[in-house]
């Protein structure tokens, strides 16, 4: 079968399409005929060998952790009723950028009827994360909510969920094109965090008080600047490090500012709730209250371009690989 492999850690050019043996389903496993493979920023850092959160995979490896397609083969002990069903499958950190992938039957998520597989992948990964972040941040009607990377996969859903919760939303992004998307998503205001005084715009919009909730998916200088415009009594929620470093706030500084910091380690507890949050966000999408923003798709032989688009921060919304 065709699969993309990484033979050495490095840039997107290390993603090379080739032929590998078909996977075999062991006990409790299935083989999925892959139609869509998801992609996250973290996976680009795993490819570079710079991600601090995961053990580097053994080379060569096939990237991709979340796939969608139909169950093609069931292993020993697996109910034959799974055959032919549309599912999302978690393969671990590797194995997804291929025509077939192995997943545990316990980790299968049936794709809802009436929802396309690309939309299901976007909502399962980024949607469940956004749903969890909103739940933990305890948004109240009337709150001012600042969303960084608001035209990204998670950020675009945070904008919509915050609006649905009755909040006033400021979306921050880094290009005119992305700011237009943020406004189309329903944000009350959009600010360009490349501008020298973008935090001054946030203060002006919030009558000097700052944002009641900040969703920090960028980190670095932008994350630190966003913390400085979090309102006293507000929540500063960290979920990403697109800049290369997650925002870390000294607890004493947070206490003096009167801000509750919900650190990036919150994500470690998300796993147990992913299926529940995925069902909730997919129900919201089915009701027309939210929609995943799938900005670009790439065929399997252009997987390197998919990684590059995310790393260079030119991508809008979710980036997917179609097999």
List keywords for this structure.
323 residues; Quinone Oxidoreductase, Chain A, domain 1; alpha/beta; single chain; six-stranded parallel sheet; 30% helix
How would you sum up this structure, described in words?
This protein has 323 residues and is α/β, with parallel strands linked by helices. The protein has two domains: 2-111 and 293-322, Medium-chain alcohol dehydrogenases, catalytic domain (Quinone Oxidoreductase, Chain A, domain 1, Alpha-Beta Complex); 125-269, Alpha-Beta Complex (Quinone Oxidoreductase, Chain A, domain 1), CATH 3.90.180.10. Helices cover 30% and strands 26% of the residues. The chain contains nine helices and 15 strands. It has helices at 41-48, 117-137, 153-164, 176-184, 198-205, 220-228, 251-257, 274-286, 303-311, and strands at residues 2-6, 15-19, 29-38, 66-74, 86-90, 100-104, 108-110, 144-147, 168-173, 189-192, 211-216, 230-238, 260-262, 294-299, 318-322. The strands form three sheets. Strands 3, 4, 5, 6, 7, 14 and 15 form a seven-stranded mixed β-sheet that branches. The protein has a six-stranded parallel β-sheet with strand order 10-9-8-11-12-13, sandwiched between helices. Strand 9 (168-173), helix 4 (176-184) and strand 10 (189-192) form a beta-alpha-beta unit. Helix 2 crosses helix 3 and helix 2 (117-137) packs across helix 8 (274-286). The chain starts with a strand and ends with a strand. The mean pLDDT is 95.
Shape call:
globular
Give the N-terminus to C-terminus distance in angstroms: 11 Å
Give the DSSP E fraction (strand runs of 2 or more residues). 25-35%
Question: Main beta sheet, described?
Answer: 7 strands, mixed
- CATH architecture annotation name of the largest domain: Alpha-Beta Complex
Give the class-level CATH name of the largest domain: Alpha Beta
Low-confidence runs of at least 5 consecutive residues: none
């Amino acid at each position: 079968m065709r699969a993309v492999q990484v033979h050495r850690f490095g840039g997107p050019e290390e993603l090379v399409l080739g032929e590998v043996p078909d996977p075999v389903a062991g006990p409790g496993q299935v083989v999925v005929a892959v139609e869509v493979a998801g992609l996250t920023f973290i996976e680009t850092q795993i490819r570079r060998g710079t991600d601090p959160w995961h053990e580097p995979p053994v080379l060569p490896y096939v990237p991709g952790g979340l796939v969608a397609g139909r169950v093609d083969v069931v292993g020993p002990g697996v109910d034959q009723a799974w055959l032919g069903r549309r599912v999302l499958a978690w393969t671990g950190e590797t194995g997804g950028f291929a025509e077939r992938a192995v997943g545990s039957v316990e980790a299968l998520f049936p794709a809802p009827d009436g929802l396309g597989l690309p939309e299901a992948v976007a909502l399962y990964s980024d949607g469940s994360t956004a749903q969890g972040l909103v739940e933990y941040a305890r948004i109240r009607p009337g709150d001012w909510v600042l969303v960084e990377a608001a035209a990204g996969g998670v950020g675009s859903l945070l904008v919509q969920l915050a609006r649905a919760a009755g909040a006033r939303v400021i979306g921050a992004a880094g290009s005119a094109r992305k700011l237009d998307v943020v406004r189309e998503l329903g944000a009350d205001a959009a600010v360009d965090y490349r501008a020298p005084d973008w935090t001054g715009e946030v203060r002006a919009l919030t009558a000097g008080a700052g944002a009641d909730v900040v969703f920090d998916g960028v980190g670095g200088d932008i994350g630190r600047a966003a913390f400085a415009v979090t309102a006293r009594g507000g929540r500063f929620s960290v979920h990403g490090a697109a800049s290369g470093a997650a925002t870390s706030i000294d607890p004493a500084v947070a206490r003096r500012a009167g801000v509750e910091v919900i650190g990036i380690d919150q994500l470690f507890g998300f796993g147990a709730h992913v299926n529940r949050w995925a069902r909730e966000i997919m129900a919201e999408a089915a009701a027309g209250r939210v929609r995943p923003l799938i900005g670009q798709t790439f065929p399997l032989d252009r997987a390197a371009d998919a990684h590059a688009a995310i790393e260079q921060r030119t991508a809008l919304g979710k980036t997917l690989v179609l097999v």
